[in-house]
């Protein structure tokens, strides 16, 4: 394809116009523009293009990912896109594939001819890339339906930063339910609710509360890992980021995936703005929350807000109002699931399961004796204590 025509077609992207923001596509556009500038300006832009390609690694994969992560008029009407929209998408795909087919030699030769500057031919080269795996708009629509689309295709787990930005977690925790022995009743409750959510049926927001080290957070992460292939995503956020909910809701509304917004270690020292905002977001706000989003929170406090004896002082009306305020947030969670410290039998059962999975070679009697001693020296019995005990025994066994 003639480079002038390719440059015009690249500027005319319509359905995939969002790709103009991608650094690699911008570098190509600037290199094409430099064909009509001086030889020095072309050399500068060509070098920047090479740098952008090096930064991407696999250039064909980078363009495919950019298409995959895009949200556009096709994704917005993915159920029944109009024929002219599919035609426009075909134009864009053909343009991007032609761009990938361009090698550095062809671009340098065009510039050297225009500027009468043979020295440009001595610049570094780059090979052509592979075409996109879909040839037309209909194939792209099928790809979106099968693989999903948008920002949240980048990972199964995301986090909210202090500036309010949602970012993908590159290496999320890989814990699975099989790694968490014990608490079967609690896990089944969460599983049942999550499966209903994935099936598009009514599902509750969940509050997991109880003692530290009992596996509340790990259980939520494990359930997401179990169903990530079904499009379940997790967005982990600190309670101080609760005011970011409207932004997250807006992003979720345009996504084909289903989200668990995970509020870990949720508690408030008083009824502040975040406390009031979370109440409104869970239930009762004018905008409501998207149907493809639920909130799972963990806390060591049943009522999520610190209570004092002073809260119970005063006349009867004030006492009742104070108590209603304390429980007003936790009552908005449809499911409240308790993770209590395990008794001796359950603790030793967890130890046995972890020991078997790790290949720890100790007799049952010795294992239980050492596990109980370890718990007494630490903070008592809990799944966390059991895992720490097994890790210690494995380390000692390795040293021997």
Major sheet:
7 strands, mixed
Query: Strand order across the biggest sheet?
Result: 2-1-4-5-6-3-7
By oligomeric state, this entry counts as: single chain
Beginning-to-end CA distance, first to last residue: 69 Å
Tell the overall outline.
Answer: elongated
Question: What is the SS-derived class?
Answer: alpha/beta
> Share of helix among residues?
40-55%
**What number is the mean pLDDT?**
88
How many beta-strand segments? 7
User: How many helical elements?
Assistant: 16
Strand percentage: 5-15%
Uncertain spans = 308-312
Whole-angstrom Rg: 28 Å
Order of helix and strand elements from N to C terminus: HHHHHHHHEEHEHEHEHEHEHHH
Folded structure, characterized:
With 400 residues, this protein is of the alpha/beta class. Helices cover 50% and strands 9% of the residues. Strand 1 and strand 2 (166-168) form a beta hairpin. Helix 14 packs across helix 15. The longest helix is centred in the N-terminal third of the chain and has 19 residues, at 83-101. The relative contact order is 0.09. The model is unreliable at 308-312 (pLDDT under 50).
What labels would you give this structure?
about 400 residues, alpha/beta
Task: Write the topology of this structure.
Layout: H1 3-11, H2 23-34, H3 39-56, H4 59-69, H5 73-76, H6 83-101, H7 104-115, H8 137-147, E1 157-160, E2 166-168, H9 184-198, E3 206-210, H10 216-226, E4 232-237, H11 245-253, E5 258-263, H12 273-282, E6 293-299, H13 316-328, E7 335-339, H14 344-358, H15 364-377, H16 383-399
Parallel strand pairs: 1-4, 3-6, 3-7, 4-5, 5-6
Antiparallel strand pairs: 1-2
């Amino acid at each position: 394809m003639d480079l002038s025509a390719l440059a015009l077609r690249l500027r005319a992207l319509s359905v995939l116009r969002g790709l103009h923001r991608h650094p690699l596509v911008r570098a190509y556009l600037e290199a094409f523009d430099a064909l009509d500038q001086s030889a020095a300006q072309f050399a500068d832009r060509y070098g920047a293009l090479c740098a952008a390609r090096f930064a991407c690694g696999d250039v064909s994969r980078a363009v495919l990912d950019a298409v995959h992560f895009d949200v556009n008029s096709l994704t917005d009407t993915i159920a029944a896109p109009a024929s002219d929209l599919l035609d426009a998408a075909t134009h864009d795909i053909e343009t991007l594939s032609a761009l990938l087919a361009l090698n550095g030699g062809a671009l340098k030769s065009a510039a050297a001819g225009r500027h009468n500057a043979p020295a440009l031919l001595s610049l570094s080269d780059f090979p052509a890339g592979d075409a996109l795996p879909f040839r037309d708009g209909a194939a792209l629509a099928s790809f979106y339906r099968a693989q999903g689309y948008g920002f949240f295709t980048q990972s199964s787990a995301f986090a909210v930063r202090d500036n309010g930005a949602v970012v993908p977690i590159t290496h999320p925790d890989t814990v699975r339910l099989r790694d968490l022995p014990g608490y079967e009743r609690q896990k089944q409750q969460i599983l049942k609710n999550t499966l209903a959510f994935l099936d598009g049926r009514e599902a509750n927001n969940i509050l997991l509360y109880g003692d530290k080290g009992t596996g509340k957070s790990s259980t939520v992460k494990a359930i997401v890992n179990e169903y990530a292939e079904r499009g379940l995503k997790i967005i982990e956020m600190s309670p101080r980021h609760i005011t970011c909910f409207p932004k997250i809701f807006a992003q979720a509304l345009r996504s084909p995936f289903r989200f668990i917004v995970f509020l870990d270690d949720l508690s408030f020292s008083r009824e502040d703005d975040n406390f009031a905002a979370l109440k409104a977001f869970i239930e009762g706000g004018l905008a409501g929350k998207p149907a493809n989003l639920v909130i799972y929170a963990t806390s060591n406090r049943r009522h999520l807000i610190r209570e004092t004896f002073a809260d119970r002082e005063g006349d009867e009306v004030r006492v009742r109002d104070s108590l209603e305020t304390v429980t007003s947030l936790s009552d908005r969670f449809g499911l409240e699931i308790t993770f209590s410290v395990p008794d001796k039998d359950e603790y030793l059962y967890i130890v046995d399961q972890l020991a078997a999975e790790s290949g720890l070679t100790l007799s049952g009697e010795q294992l239980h004796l050492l596990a109980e001693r370890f718990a007494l020296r630490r903070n008592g019995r809990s799944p966390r204590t059991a895992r720490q005990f097994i890790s210690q025994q494995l380390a000692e066994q390795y040293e021997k």
